[in-house]
Amino acid sequence: MQASSVPCERLFSGSKQMATERRARLGAKVFEELQIMKFRWRNNITDLSVLNSSQIEEVNLTEFTEMLHQDEQDVVWDQDGFEIVAD
């Protein structure tokens, strides 16, 4: 297999994904433009799911840090023998 055939194979594979029955009426010109845009933009598109996941982890980490701090305070209260009396 020649090294130059790999990009060509990727192009045909990518066009197969786009050429569905729903998009069969696009026409050759529009189909060509879509393929060019797809391969031109694919490395410039930000993966928002990765960004959202990192933000979720930070929020969860903050919650667990606060819970750990509260647990540490509870241990100190238990060790000192203080008794909490409710009115």
Automatic annotation (TrEMBL):
<dbReference type="InterPro" id="IPR012337">
    <property type="entry name" value="RNaseH-like_sf"/>
</dbReference>
<protein>
    <recommendedName>
        <fullName>HAT C-terminal dimerisation domain-containing protein</fullName>
    </recommendedName>
</protein>
